[in-house]
Amino acid sequence: KMRLTASPLIKRVEFIPEYELASGELPNDYYTPNMNLVNDSIPDPYNNVQDTVRNSYLDLIKAPCAWEITAEFEHGDPNVLVGVSDSKVMPNHEELLGKFDTIFYNVSGGHYHGTGVAGLIAGNTNNGKGTASIGWNTKMVASGTGYKNIRDLAIWSHNNNDRLRAINMSWGNRYYKNATDSTETVSYQIEHRDILRRMYKCISEKYNIVLVAAGHNKVANESNHPNDWYSFPAYWESVIAVTSVGHIKPYQDYDYTVSTDDTLSVKDVLWWSGHKSGNRHWRTHILNNHIDIAAPGYHMYRPTVDGNSTNSYIGGGATSAAAPIVSGAAALMLVVNPDLTSVQVKDILKFSADRIDTIPHNQEFFGQGEDKLSIELGRLNAYKAVKMAKYFDEYGFDIDSMPKKIDLMIRDNEEDIGEEPNETTEIFWNSPDIWVRNQPDGEEGYENVEYDPNEPNYVYVRVKNVGCDPSSEEDELKLYWTKAASSMSWPEDYMGANYFPNGALKGDTVATVNIPSIKPGEETILEVPWSNVPNPDDYESNDQPWHFCLLARIESDDDPITTQETSSIHYNDKHNNNIASKNLTVVNLNDENLGQPIGGSFSFPNPLKTRGYFDLQLKPDDAETGRAIFNEAEVWVTLDEDLIVAWEAGGKQSTDLVHRRDGLFLVTGENAAIENIKLDPGEFGLVQLQFNFLAKEITEKETYLYHAIQRNSANNNIMGGESYQINKSPRPLFSAITSGNKTIDKEEEVILNAELIGEPANYNWYDNEGNLIYEGADFSTSAEIGKQYKLEVVTLSDGYKDYAEVELTYKPNRITSLSPNPTTGQVEVEYKINEGESAYLAITSIENPNISNNYILDMEESAFDLNVDNLSAGIYAVALIVNGQIVDTKNLIKN
Known about the structure:
The chain is an alpha+beta fold. The strands form 13 sheets. It has a 7-stranded parallel β-sheet, sandwiched between helices. Helix 7 packs parallel to helix 9 (about 380-395). It is elongated, with a radius of gyration of 42 Å. About 40% of the residues are buried.
């Protein structure tokens, strides 16, 4: 997933948590296309769709939890069949291949409806196509609609070892109780009501077949009052009558008083207060006192027929789509307990359903009165139904005494859904569910711990229940602290038993707090006051000023530690979702942090019982977008003396780093590593990271996540690490400006000036080998000291940097004067030789070039006394020759 917070184009992101239930391994077709909720259109072709979402109607009924119970039964039994009484089915559709035991009466005509119903009951699951179905490996028998077909299905089952255990009837005939209907079918139902009632009762009880029927759908311009409309066969008491609800949008966040085109998508909501004026939705949920249960029924992704295509799908639905969800769940109940009677199945389904008549959006339809429903209505909870079915012989309806599936977790990373081990990350020390605040404001966002002997810090820990049952109120969260290190040992580093040489505590318990009951799929955030924050002064005197790390651990009798813990915190975090760590240093770069560190340090130890070699890896977070921090800032790594000695003992190996001087490294790439640091058991050293953003490289990106990882050099296994969150704020940029390049003589002193940037800053001068030679804005030097210098300007508030270069060049070698000139005998020649290995003067007559004399010069002198007494009167050329080349000439007149 793209981490939007890292995008330089996005200023603020708020995540809406939507937590998922644990489900072992979900089938590979559990995700469906993200349909258009207004018209149920489906992206085409489906196989090329990238925008997919979890199957929300299976999530709502807790199908993944139900499947955990049926896993030992391979999610289906060929001897437990569901009858599909419907229009013609398409058995060669990719979702229905091999799903029918028998098709003994396939009605003529189109097969849109029957194909979709069969796919919802038990379409092929985990086949990488279409979508999963609640019935998974359940098989079916196809037949037509009508009372005679229901009778024939029952007889067929009786003659085939009673293998047909449920019949789905997503059809029916509506009956308006206050109208006279003369149609043959409805008149027959009314006239022969008792005969039909006894027939369905016989099929249900004598043939032990669960009968499920769609409650039917109200149409426009009909009465809106509950109990005005009924449907046969859903009317009969031996039949489980099903109405439909939405399953996508949380009702808590939805304004149901406003009628919009996608209102049918709201979870567990039946009708809308706006429906009584305008009949906006004519295909809607039906309500009457004969309805037994509700199930998801709208925006249902299911197979259909498009010509002769065998891979077509459609959205939409209504009660015809809700009934097969109940039928598929009934099949799973009978798989785990084949001895259940049809009456028991109906009772369990109703008893285990999640009540929806108490939802504010639905309350107007329930209660006492002519226009109210006197029933208690629940929505199918497949998990509770299947669990109750499995344990029914032992516990009956005492569901509270049945074994529970509780799975409390604290995430290791954003993508963590609770699977053990967590294979979605290698960074197990930056849990998004643990953060510190310096005040009890409840806001999310990590703050570095601040010591105050009179005021606590506050640690917030998010705990989720990704199990299938509510947790008890007996669970506890234990929170620990330790000094920051790239590898800690459990439990000794956290239990208040280990001390540094100066007597300072190495780690201890923060607090133990009770975890309230958490419903499946929900979360709670615990506020834990941290009153015993250690005094940093206790550690600075021992040269250990690094910050603190946190470890959160859930202790629960219902959800014990899954994998036996070792001394490695990294291993424990990865294999147990009720353990999580937070080793994070926040580096805030803004003008309010004048004088504050622009980095942080941590301990780098050998936690093993034998000598070992270790690598320090430095890398940006894998999910981060935009420019890597080392392309926009200087990332400096400093090892203390002990670690430098250990690194040298291991061969002084590194990758994507420049070793500038003792202990100081500059990161140059994404694979930066200081390798083979040799440490004996218990030895450790200090690592410090610093981040200096370069003014000329700045982008709009504001947040960076950078990891320092300790690996075992022998096997490359991660032992732990420390993370850095660097937050830079927008600020006026600046440039390092000098007084410019200079041309000088060798001995000449020159002052190099840095232009002040208008805010507190350090001005540092470096030679061409990178050595710091002066600190200050104005630097006095000479070309004899060096010819190239670099000015570094570093702001004190946030460590922003810029550079400027200065070059000193020598003036040309030259004769500066001849004195006196004209002369009668003695001449002083003044000269400047800035560069060269040898030099001499050549005196040549202008009138007679054959007359010439040479005089060797001392390179360290600047004047030479020339005696021309022996020269005849005339004009002479005085040439300065350096390294064999004439560099300057002047004329001399001899009187």
